[in-house]
Amino acid sequence: MPGLVLSAAAAAVAVVAARLLGGISPLLIAILLGAVVANLGTLPAVFEPGVTVASRRLLRIGVALLGLQLLLPNVLALGWGTLAVVTAVVGLGIAGSMALGKLLGIGWTQRLLIACSFSICGAAAAAAADGVVNARKRELVTTIALVVVFGTVMIPALPAAAAALGLDSTQAGMWAGAAIHEVAQVVAAGGALDAGSSAAAVGGGALAIAVTVKLARVALLAPVVAWIGVASRRRTATPTQTRRPPLVPLFLVGFLACVALRATGVLGPGWLDAARLTQTALLTAAMFALGTGVRLSVLRGVGWRPFALAAASTIIVAATALTGVLLVG
Fold first, then answer.
1. 149 in a domain, yes or no?
2. Which of 93, 186, 244, 252 has a CA that sits 20 to 30 A from residue 225's CA?
3. How many domains, in total, are found in the chain?
């Protein structure tokens, strides 16, 4: 697929640029490169299938491989408090976003898509919710564009804030995983934390913690979508057939399998290094593909209200996550 070749080439450029510049995550460079490509002109249709594969399948494979970086004792050390923080972030994020969206006069489906995507796992949550409520295509596209824009802003902003607040690597990683929208954006922020590009005082180890916390949020997608289905049926006179998202996303299963494999100790340093390089390449390509979703032409036509709600949702989720991290950590 030409789109895969384009994503791979962009990933190579991002990796080289990151090495030349020093201290900057190639994932962040890839996002910006994708946004530039998307807005310089219309991306030819021949690239779209491959770019879609990169933004979904390559992303999920890369996230699954991140499990090889985790040791079970480190995961278990996060404790029950982390789960409480994750639950609070998702619950308060959705409730607060829905309430503010209503005050802003935004339609139920649009504010629901924004609430779920900003509180759980970005575009994947928006797509899952859309499968239940059957939102208009423009509402879904708007939501995904807002996720990319505000999540991308969080990638450099959160590490800088973590350094300013004096958070250690565990706290910074927890905050990133609990506050940022997309899995790939969490990976980019975690990489920036570990690289010390924006938060040199934070130290290493934040990436693995951030991904673990983020996947705990992803695990809440199924019960939330089930609740949405019940709420949607109550709003309509005639129940309709809906697509059901998987109870546990496949890439989450892969991530846990990789964690278990690492725990066995059968993989030597060489295998782990190869997996780390592969993971970086896959995620960088996925971030470029994700960046191509930032289209200014789409964003200009949606009005200020969805932007205001997206900004408010970002603040609600980030503030709830930070409060929880400070209480637990």
1. yes
2. 186
3. 1
In a domain, 159, yes or no: yes
Q: Which two tokens stand for residue 102?
A: 């209503």
* Residue 29, both tokens: 């460079």
Residue 4 lies in a domain: no
Closest CA to 182 of 222, 140, 163, 210: 210
Domain that holds residue 185: 71-282+302-328
- Measured N-to-C along each axis, helices 269-291 and 2-21 cross at an angle, to the nearest 10 degrees, of 110
Q: Both ends of the chain: CA-CA distance in Å?
A: 45
pTM: 0.71
pLDDT digits (tens, 9 = 90+) for 298-313: 667 778 999 999 999 9
* 120 within a domain of the structure (yes/no): yes
Contacts of 117 (CB under 8 A, 6+ apart): 123, 125, 126, 129, 143, 144, 146, 147, 181
* Structure tokens belonging to residue 124: 């994947």
Angle between helices 137-165 and 26-40 (to 10 degrees): 150
Q: How far apart are CA 93 and CA 115, in angstroms?
A: 7
